[in-house]
Specification:
This is Kelch diablo. With about 600 residues, this protein is α+β, with helices and mostly antiparallel strands. It has three domains: about 30-145, Potassium Channel Kv1.1, Chain A; about 165-275, Serine Threonine Protein Phosphatase 5, Tetratricopeptide repeat (Alpha Horseshoe), CATH 1.25.40; about 295-580, Kelch-type beta propeller (Neuraminidase, 6 Propeller), CATH 2.120.10. The strands form eight sheets. Strands 25, 26, 27, 28 and 29 form a five-stranded antiparallel sheet that branches. Strands 6-5-4-30 form a four-stranded antiparallel sheet, with no helix packed on it. A four-stranded antiparallel sheet has the order 7-8-9-10, with no helix packed on it. A hairpin with a 4-residue loop joins strand 5 (about 305-310) and strand 6 (about 315-320). Helix 3 crosses helix 4 and helix 8 runs antiparallel to helix 9.
Length: about 600
């Protein structure tokens, strides 16, 4: 038996062992109780040796507690300063409610939950009194309270008072919620400095670049007299390469031409011309060489005839809503963020006049005005805000007709016809013109000829023919050249030869052959590469995806499609990454 050294009752060995176990060396309850007792002493005025006065209200406290929690108070009470021996310390720069919360925190570590405005005062007091833990808590409170309505005020405030942590959290919140934030009442009050930081960020979470431009325009209109002079500089941060040429010409240029200041008009139009690709001021509908905002993914919409979204960077296939009216040998193009699927061979064996439009944001299809002339194996592309359907065939004949669709009016008109009928031609839009390449004539002759359409003159002219005749080839424009891949060279037999056309020199040259001869394949330009999907040769259908590196003139097989298919269309587009999870993964 062991005796208590203070002469109290004996302690048994078992209780002694429990008292000195490792777990009990630190007594949290003791520490908490001590803090609670000191806080109670403060409230009742026991043993207090200093009074803090703020705006006529006084708070009793203990110097030792204040000095232990804050280096500000430690210096105040220990360094040879006039306040060292004073019983009352005046602090009128901190309001009474805030001082009350500060002292509660100093004594207990607890904090009565203030609102966002109170948290700002708490942050400033903690900064002044050198209480880093309290500053951190104040930032947490303000971050939790962020909303589309208050975040811009918080951003400006955090910049003014140099709160890097709060600024970082708030800035990220605005980037993630830019669409709703840009429509708030405070957005037009945002200083140009902060707006510039937002517009310059690739991390803006927006569905498309139009949202960014419209936000800039609203900001300028908020104080038109002061801000149009800043518009030209901020406009340079808009990613014009990720806006359609149609939107730039019909919306942005009209806005610019309405500006009252001629010098500003000239400066902005000069910025726009950096993306001009011809003297006709035709703007590219999409430039895949420039990175979009990081929350927008490069996606290739693949119709085979089921519809998939292919993400080249991650090699993912996502299943999308199927085409409502099944057809083969239809043609597709991307137009203002929508996929248009035109014509084709219907189940009854006749050429179809059906036109259907896919909206990736809703994962749904809509019917559009029917083609005036039913067709299949036509070539489709977009130019100057119109969708063109070139050539094609019926059951009995091939066409040289050209049908043009106006999305604003949802109607079709016929424009100048080709010089010769073509089915299975390729159609490429670049430099303000359309190029109809190759195809097959009514007598089954394979064509090497190329025709160029000028919308300004509404005429087709012959240009230098390809090196070899081909039909149903894959063609795309990238890095200043038109690339033509494979195609049919004789009934049932495909090319693996490829060639490139320099539109400036009007000259064709051969490039490396692709690894697999294929025709009827889909093609999409991606950064500095061409992706070629599916197709067939001599009755063999493919599911492989070949990639051509434009800079290295080299091919490699990089992936497989979810299924083997002969007729494939590919439409490159940019899509908000927030939309991608709604589509189920497809198994390959």
């Amino acid at each position: 038996m062991t005796m208590d050294v203070r002469g109290n009752s004996p302690i048994s060995p078992s209780s002694e062992n429990r008292a000195f176990t490792r777990e009990n060396l630190g007594d949290i309850d003791y520490t908490s109780q001590l803090a609670a007792t000191m806080a109670e002493f403060r409230k009742t005025g026991q043993l207090c040796d200093v009074i803090i006065s703020t705006e006529g209200r006084t708070f009793q406290a203990h110097k030792i507690v204040l000095a232990a929690s804050s280096s500000f108070f430690q210096s105040l009470f220990t360094v040879d300063m006039s306040e060292r021996n004073k019983q009352t310390i005046k602090m009128d720069n901190i309001d009474p409610p805030t001082m009350s919360r500060v002292l509660d925190y100093v004594y207990t570590g607890a904090l009565t939950y203030p609102n966002s405005a109170d948290a700002r005062e708490l942050y400033l007091a903690a900064d002044y009194l050198i209480l880093p833990g309290l500053k951190h808590k104040a930032v947490e409170i303000m971050v939790e309270a962020l909303s589309a309505e208050n975040c811009l005020r918080t951003l400006v405030w955090s910049h003014k008072f140099s709160s890097r942590a709060l600024f970082t959290h708030t800035f990220r919140f605005i980037l993630d919620n830019f669409n709703s934030v840009s429509r708030s009442a405070d957005f037009v009050k945002l200083p140009a400095r902060e707006l510039k930081l937002l517009l310059a960020s690739n991390n803006l979470r927006v569905a498309d670049e139009e949202i960014v431009y419209e936000a800039l325009k609203r900001w300028c209109e908020g104080k038109a007299d002061e801000r149009w002079s800043q518009f030209a500089e901020l406009f340079k941060l808009i990613k014009l390469e990720h806006l359609s040429g149609y939107y730039i010409e019909t919306t942005i240029q009209e806005d610019v031409l309405a500006l009252p200041d001629e010098e500003i008009r000239f400066e902005i139009l000069e910025t726009i011309t950096e993306y001009t690709v011809s003297e006709n001021s035709e703007l590219p509908t999409i430039n895949l060489l420039q990175p979009p905002r990081r929350h927008i993914a490069m996606v290739t919409c693949v119709l085979i005839p089921d519809v998939y979204a292919y993400i080249p960077t991650s090699k993912e296939w996502l299943e999308m809503a199927p085409v409502p009216t099944p057809r083969i040998s239809s043609s597709s193009a991307i137009f203002n963020g929508l996929v248009y699927n035109v014509g084709g061979l219907a189940g009854c064996g006749d050429s179809s006049n059906v036109v259907e439009c896919f909206d990736p944001s809703a994962n749904s299809w809509l019917s559009k005005a029917s083609l005036p002339v039913p067709t299949r194996a036509a070539a489709v592309n977009v130019l100057d805000g119109f969708l063109y359907v070139v050539g094609g065939r019926s059951n009995s004949a091939r066409f040289n007709i050209v049908q043009r669709y106006d999305p604003c009016k949802d109607n079709w008109t016929l424009v100048t016809s080709l010089h010769e009928e073509r089915s299975g031609a390729s159609l490429v839009s670049c430099h303000g013109n359309l190029y109809a390449i190759g195809g097959r004539k009514d007598d089954n002759t394979f064509l090497s000829s190329v025709e160029c359409y000028s919308p300004a003159q509404n005429t087709w002219s012959l240009t230098t023919p390809m090196c070899v005749a081909r039909a149903s080839s894959a063609a795309a424009y990238i890095r200043g050249k038109i690339y033509v891949i494979g195609g049919v060279r004789s009934p049932g037999v495909s090319h693996n030869s490829c060639e490139a056309y320099d539109t400036t020199l009007d000259q064709w040259s051969t490039i490396s052959s692709n690894l697999v001869p294929r025709s009827y394949a889909g093609i999409a330009a991606f950064e500095t590469s061409l992706l070629v999907c599916g197709g067939e040769d001599s009755g063999n259908f493919y599911d492989t995806v070949e990639c051509y590196d434009v800079e290295k003139d080299r091919w490699e097989i990089v992936d497989k499609m979810p299924r083997v298919e002969k007729f494939v269309d590919c439409c490159p587009m940019f899509m908000s990454k927030d939309l991608l999870p709604i589509f189920p993964s497809a198994k390959c």
